[in-house]
Amino acid sequence: MMEEGAKTLSKKKGSPVLPDMRGYFGEFGGRFVSETLMSALIELENSFRKAWRDATFRKEFRETLAEYSGRPTPLYFAESLTRKTGGAEIWLKREDLNHTGAHKITNAVGQALLARRMGKGRLIAETGAGQHGVATATVAARLGFESRIYMGSEDVRRQSLNVFRMKLLGSEVCPVDLGGKTLKDAISEALRDWSRTVRNTHYLLGTAFGPHPFPLIVRSFQSVIGQEVRRQILSAKGKLPDALVACVGGGSNAIGLFHPFLGEDSVRMFGVEAGGRAIAPGEHAARFAGGSVGVLQGTRTYVLQNPDGQIENTHSVSAGLDYSAVGPELAYYRDSGRIIFDWIGDTDALDAFQELSRQEGIIPALESSHAIAYGIRLARSMSRDQTVVINLSGRGDKDVMEVSRILSMKEVDKI
Amino acid sequence: MTVKNNVAPRWKRGASPSPLIPYIVAGDPDLATTATYLDMAAKKGIFAVELGIPFSDPTADGPVIQAASQRALRHETSLESILGWLSGIPRNKLPDLYLMTYFNLFHHMGVERFCREAQRSGRIAGVVIPDLSYEDGALYRPVFRRYGINVVGFVSPTTPPERARRIVRDSRGFVYYVGLMGTTGSALTLSDETRQVVSTLRQWTRKPVCVGFGISSGEMAEEILEFADGVIVGSRLVLDERDPDRWRKTFEEFLNAAGKGRK
Fold first, then answer.
1. Topology adopted by domain A23-65+104-218
2. CATH class as words, domain A71-101+223-414
3. What pLDDT, on the 0 to 100 scale, is given for residue A14?
4. Which residues of A are part of the catalytic machinery?
5. What is the ipTM of this complex?
């Protein structure tokens, strides 16, 4: 039924023409929203396409990232970790060194500049770990938007530091006490707000998910990650990396790293989902391991759902990966076999969190710790003359309290 | 080949004894109570009932329907079991039924399979799917149509005229005008805009044009029926769903108002 979309893939090497005009990546994607939001999405798509072709907008985006966020972020050779692992060279893309501590600021800057062009006065956003909420609150402060952030009440509890940061930056934080009280519920509540306020409000969606054109917009802004890696690794090693690794919640740091390399057959790509406590209903967030194709929050993609089609709640130690669905573009490349997906559980992620801290003096976000854990395992299986680039999507300051709580509980368990 | 549905809408525009369309969440508080509400509605000769199938993540609904859906999810209220349950209710105890829920439930059951079973049950006039956009719906409407299941089209205050025209053209059963911007249960204040848009839609089509979202009182229903063919009452009725006496009272209030409002 939907093979047309697939045929448009990759006429020109490295730049697949996806999504198609209806917002589909093959059979994934689309625009499953209420009619009230349709005009806003069409307006957003038109404004984005126009802005993206406009050299002035691109320059403003680039310069804001350079001056305000500190881009390009370094590509760092983790020598000590590489030596200890014994295998391929491990390189870290230091997205944690961005202003506000994660890759999320890049998309927030891009969309806020776009919203200003569109004449919107108010921003709303959802957040899981709080990184996207902080990024949105930050750009709202800088560009003079009113802003409100929706956050599941379970995430409010475990990411209280980020809640305070958002408030400090002048945003209103709305805890969402529905469903699993995490990211999924925050997105639903943001969509509800948007359907009331769509005429003056831009919904600054934080990941490559949701109704078209959000997956396209977020990918376009975040692709700067992969573009920088390409330049940096060529300059450092004179060749492309052999493998790329990124954690996958909605998928923005992953598609941002992967997209510029999709046409390079020699570069293998690995997306790492949250395995939580176990691959059983409600215990994890590995959509490709335990999910099936469904429609949630505006898009057709892999979703964790029960036999009746009700959406399942999820669990992960990292709030940013704790989500029932995954970006449609990643679903497409998963089915085509271009990107390999696997999962890492809570325990291994916590180990990697500590390992990177000790080996390299870098405390990674719990989300990124999933990619670190997988990347170490992958590097070990590869030869010394190969390179692995792991996207260190965020820093772990926000997680230290929660990790400290979990580790002290484990100590108690041992006694 | 088109399969004729034996539950084509019974009422032509303006011909039903009452232009009221109550929204009822299946299984709130339990299916036996839902059945008595359906029976009551059938006896009053209302235009149709929107029967809500609870979904875990109702993004277009406000707090009242969200809470009712959560309660109903504790019972056997999957799309499939609801079809089975309806088959067991005598046809004369049911009004025309439009199943209202989010697209994932149809998608998960399989649209074709749903249509086959809905058609076989002889109880379903159509479906109301708030998150099936006009564009994505293009893939699925032909399947529903093949089985004679009406797919109701939505027009909202943000829909541009040329788009509204296409939606109205492809809508079946009735046209759903979303009276306010927001989620179900927010407060609607009637504007001249609503009146004008509905009048325009009615000039384009002979299908009934019904207004829903935010109809919180009998007076408002009455006023809307001065210019619309039907009025959909959701959250205000769902609020009383757990208490049959209160539900009956509110239902009758709306019924009376609807009777007065009709031209």
1. Rossmann fold (3.40.50)
2. alpha beta
3. 46
4. 104, 126, 393
5. 0.93
